[in-house]
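Researcher: Sequence recovery benchmark, item below. Answer with residues only.
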């Protein structure tokens, strides 16, 4: 239809999703919600001008209107001199196993409610005898997306996922604290509500009685959740090709250079079986792949979609991403993975005379300069190889280029957090302030 209206190239992206979620507090259901969504986004290209329109239904009349609007917008757009073409189809697709579980897709509201009760009961057992409140949640989701374009791409894929969480609040005589734990999986047989409940409660109890410490330069151990924020949000975004091309990344001038410790190896692997970021094709329908990012400290790769790859005249890595059918392609990671080393978090801690553990932070660096000032929302003080107490009002300060180069040890305690898979790791020193 778009071609008949004058488009030289055209693309249709269809997304359909169905999710059921329950939130509970103590023994009461606080919210239960079922969400169904479906729509289509249309890109039309005339010469180097691009138009985009979407609709939130799949009815013929609405789709026709979206196509007409995308062509009209294309004619009215300003030419983009860097646009070359939409991606072409080929035969290099590698199907990824473990993305769809019919058991998750068939979960009933009663089965989901049973899971949330098991989460809460497990937290309660850990917190017995204390003053507490427990929030918990479970969400099952099923989605299908399809991409077709006028250059031969035609593909679709179904995915399921299950999310469980526990977030207790504990009060003592002079303190109140909260933490959480969660599990994300594509396989119902891996779901472990009891572990989520117990771990969320134990993590909360571990944060009681925080203290400040004398600051200074000292080693920092990043546990998997803290590592996922600092690396997954703080470094992954720096290797998006668009950010590099526009000079908005702190590694814009570093391709091919040694930017990290030889202990650090990072890949982006969209073909990982059952991976939460896995997919057979990206949001433009281009075949997915495994991309080497850092090898022995050297920046070996950037993440591209078709636009940035054509602009740099390099191979597309298949990292096009969309928020939904309502958005244009950008770039994101698939499964961003730090290669594990050896040793648990306790092993890494035991080797440090004085330092801190960053179990969790919500802060990421300035993506242009790389400067990081991170509050340790869940942090601990290490002395003579042992964790002594949780930290209060404590920050770490370091530039990301220095952080990457100061990695001295990588553990084996790998954890999956959204699209990041990482073990704990140690940096030899950063500036720690507390007070």
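Model:
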């Amino acid at each position: 239809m778009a071609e008949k209206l004058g488009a030289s190239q055209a693309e249709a992206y269809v997304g359909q999703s169905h999710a059921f979620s329950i939130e509970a507090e103590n023994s009461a259901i606080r919210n239960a919600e079922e969400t169904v969504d479906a729509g289509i986004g249309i890109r039309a290209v005339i010469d180097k001008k691009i138009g985009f329109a979407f609709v939130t239904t799949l009815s013929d009349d609405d789709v026709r209107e979206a196509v007409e609007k995308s062509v009209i917008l294309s004619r009215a757009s300003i030419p983009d001199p860097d646009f070359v073409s939409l991606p072409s189809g080929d035969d290099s697709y590698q199907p990824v196993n473990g993305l769809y579980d019919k058991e998750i897709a068939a979960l009933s509201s009663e089965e989901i409610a049973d899971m949330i009760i098991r989460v809460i009961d497990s937290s309660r057992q850990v917190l017995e005898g204390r003053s507490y409140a427990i929030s918990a949640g479970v969400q099952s989701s099923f989605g299908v997306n399809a991409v077709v374009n006028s250059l031969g791409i035609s593909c679709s894929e179904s995915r399921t996922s299950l999310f469980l969480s526990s977030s207790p609040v504990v009060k003592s005589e002079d303190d109140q604290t909260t933490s959480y734990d969660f599990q994300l999986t594509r396989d119902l047989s891996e779901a472990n509500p009891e572990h989520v409940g117990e771990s969320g409660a134990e993590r909360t109890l571990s944060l009681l009685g925080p203290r400040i410490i004398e600051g200074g330069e000292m080693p920092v151990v990043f546990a998997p959740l803290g590592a996922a924020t600092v690396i997954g949000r703080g470094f992954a975004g720096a290797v998006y090709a668009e950010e590099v091309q526009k000079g908005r990344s702190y590694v814009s001038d570093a391709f091919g250079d040694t930017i990290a410790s030889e202990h650090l190896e990072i890949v982006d692997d969209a073909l990982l079986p059952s991976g939460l970021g896995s997919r057979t094709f990206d949001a433009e329908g281009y075949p997915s792949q495994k991309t080497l990012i850092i090898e022995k400290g050297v920046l070996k790769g950037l993440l591209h979609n078709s636009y940035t790859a054509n602009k740099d005249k390099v191979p597309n890595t298949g990292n096009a991403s969309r928020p939904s059918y309502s958005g244009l392609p950008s770039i994101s990671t698939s499964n961003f993975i730090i290669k594990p080393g050896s040793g648990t978090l306790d092993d890494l801690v035991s080797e440090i005379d004085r330092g801190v553990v960053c179990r969790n932070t919500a802060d990421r660096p300035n993506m242009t300069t790389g400067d990081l000032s991170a509050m340790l929302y869940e942090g601990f003080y290490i002395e003579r190889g042992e964790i002594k107490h949780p930290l209060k009002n404590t920050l770490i300060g370091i530039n990301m280029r220095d952080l990457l180069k100061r990695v001295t040890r990588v553990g084996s305690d790998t954890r999956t957090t959204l699209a990041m898979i990482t073990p704990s790791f140690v940096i030899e020193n950063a500036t720690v302030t507390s007070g």
